[in-house]
Amino acid sequence: MNQSIKKILDFPITKIIVGIIVPFSLFVVIQNFVLKPVFYSIIQGKNIADPIIIFISVIVLLVSYYYLFRFYDKRKITELSLKHLPKEMFGGFIFGFLSISLFIFILYLLGYYQAFSITTTHYTARLFTVLLFAGIVEDLFHRGLIVRVIENWLGTHVAIVVAMLVELQHIFNTNSDLFSFFVDLIWGFTMAMMFIYTKRIWLPYFFHIGWNFAQPFYGSNLTGQNDFGTIIQSKFTGPELLTGGAFGIENSIFTPLFLLIIGIVLYYLAKKEGKIVESKLFKNEFKRSLFKS
Is the pTM of this model over 0.85? Predict the structure, then answer.
């Protein structure tokens, strides 16, 4: 291969762009030109067909990412390693779900949360699979790709900053405000630390799913949207600083405080266990400047 082309392909930003475009393009093509025509023709009702389509789409996305980087980097795809999957899957989901549950319980004790009834009428398998797909797209590309590549290139600390900035795409969500901006930054930090500590996407992904599922489960809006269904029919009252207002419980003051504690603990553990990566680029530049002087 031409050395100039190889340098371009090996450049970290190129890897990020290729790593997003190739798997996502393959997913779009297969979903729209294969899965939808096939399943819509044999299954009546999108509420049944769509969960199957989304589930297969997730598999397509993961498999295409896996083989792309097996070929591209010629390495083991450790970010998708299944070695600790059961522990990270169940532990992550339960931790995410219980985190929101804790906020709800505090609001209940304060008299700001009332539950009236429980029903699955307003919640479908299709809504849950949408959460599964949205979560895997974000955690695969944000953590498994962007954080991983930036960390190997510029070190852990730059990767954390980039991870926080990437999450600001959520400021365009319905009912976002200045406080949402702050919450997004803290979310990016903590989710990045979950990946940096484990070097796998599964803990942040399943924490993400548990976190997102719990919000409509308790009757809250999810990141400003009220179209994800509910299981517990409830009512939130009290100051928006505590309840999150129209954005949902995710915009409560409890959220950034709790997430920040988790992120700091994980950073401490990562530092203690030697998982913080120093920048090779900055280190080489420092050595060159020493030799020059």
Answer: yes
